[in-house]
Please model this.
Amino acid sequence: MTDYRPPLDDIAFSLKLADFERLAAEIPDFAHADLDTVTGLIAEAGAFMAEVIAPTNRDGDTIGARFVGDGTVVTPPSFKVAYDKLAESGWLTVPFPEQYGGGGFPGSVGFAMQELVQSSNMAFSLGPLLTHGSTDAFLAYASEELKDTYLPRMISGEWMGTMNLTEPQAGTDVGALTTKAVPNGDGTYAISGQKIFITWGEHDLTDNIVHLVLARVPGAPEGTKGISLFVVPKFLVNEDGSLGERNRLQVLSIEEKIGIHGSPTCVMSFEGATAYLVGEENKGMRAMFVMMNVARLSVGMQGLSQSVRANQQSIEYAKERVQGTTPSGEATIIGHPDVRRMLVTQRATTVALRHLLLLNAVQIDLAHHHPDEAVRARAEEVSSMLTPVCKSWGTDLGIQNTSINIQMHGGSGYVEETGASQFWRDVRISAIYEGTNGVQAADFVGRKMPVRGGQSFLEFLAEMRTTISEARAAGERFAGLADALERSFGVLEQTTGWMLRTGAAGDATSVLAGSVPFLNAWALNLGAWLLTKGALREDAPADEYALAQFFVSQLLPEAQAFAAAATAGGEQLYAVEL
Ligand SMILES: Cc1cc2nc3c(=O)[nH]c(=O)nc-3n(C[C@H](O)[C@H](O)[C@H](O)COP(=O)(O)OP(=O)(O)OC[C@H]3O[C@@H](n4cnc5c(N)ncnc54)[C@H](O)[C@@H]3O)c2cc1C
Model:
């Protein structure tokens, strides 16, 4: 399989475009995180991931995680060696507070580094990803005692974390969960119930596993209003920090999956396990959303990471494979127009997606840390608007671009030997977990669009329009881009107006029926906007202008078709007998 080459220049440019430099300039705690320092760190992390983690990717797929029958799960031998080196390297600590042993860098730096580990091995990266989400929930809601006990070891990577939400009858509808938490009378609780599909629920990489579990206390209200969040360690922790008794929980089995074979997906049984409340009783959904929002952006990043691998492998193959006569005279298939269409589609969508993901990540940092309350509030609106787009569009692109990689290889793409199928099989889950993409679209129109009667969306569109004026001012070379953006943003504004009016009139069915095409229309417009914004910069990479031209003329037109579908209403869907 192709060796992974971290796209360091691309990452650095996306950070610049996302206004990353504002963090060091405007937030005193991040004054040390200037772009040079950060890109230097990312380069070092990239070299580490390519050398230490990427070589384990194939083992993850072919050996996979195995349930060995007595409540034990073993991962491929190369995983343990690589994980120990990763924990030792300190890269896991980068975005966390120094107080708990973290590196004190902005979250967006840690997020940019996630691309590197995910591209190296997506199945492996899920362990650190869920630990990251759990750590954020701890930081936001856990007591000081719980933080002191767990955070330093989770941040260093000594222990891993999990997220236990799903039960057989409670998937998307988390409020239907029935796992019970009964007070023990000493401040702890006894948790009983079964959770399914728990990523890295059991494994052999760390001595302890810190489960975050959603459960109901006696008398809790029904639905999501009656959910509480608990920490349930695999081994209880003694006062001196050493590991104590084994807690009453176990893995019952692991799933056989299409992909991410190296990531154990566990059925977990809690049998009166000792648990500690995180935050307040019945307020678990708030804490869960802290985990989910981080995880949703990271899952969007999985789409990017596998697109990068797919594009690298596709280009390499296209430069080697000789077949037919190409109009450009090149000896290999890279000279065929349709092959180039596939490669440029992968590349343009990958670059646009990275711009969007890192923009979102920088907005999250501004929302959490900026000294000005108004800046924090607007950044919170923007990031919560962009997160479902990043998750849904990012993962759809991951599936599209890895599928193109298979297509690019012809028949060889369909055989396992080339390794092309692994990226596609691995990334397929990303559109399903952390809220299916349909649920992301429902969130986009149901929770995010109505903010301030739609003004939040419309103000963002007005900001996007400033790029049109800049493109006009930049002369003839940018005139075509400016015209196309003007037309497309106009349609997007009308579509947004239709969605707002239809929602205000109480026709939720039509709004939900149009939610996925509406989100996709926004995604394409955001991608076209960011590539054009990038191309206008003096320090733009050589191909940014060509990528913007391709995206705007060949991919953006689909946004108009999505707008038509978004405003078609819900009736047709129910008129068909199923
Ligand atoms: C490999 C893997 C790893 C996972 N890891 C974890 C984990 O670590 N922790 C954890 O708690 N869970 C985990 N999950 C569970 C995952 O988050 C759920 O599978 C997912 O949320 C969907 O729930 P479900 O499978 O019950 O599908 P359902 O909720 O039954 O959905 C079925 C279909 O109906 C649609 N649908 C359902 N409700 C709505 C709605 N309200 N609006 C629109 N469409 C709707 C869905 O989009 C989907 O197409 C994992 C799953 C897998 C396969």
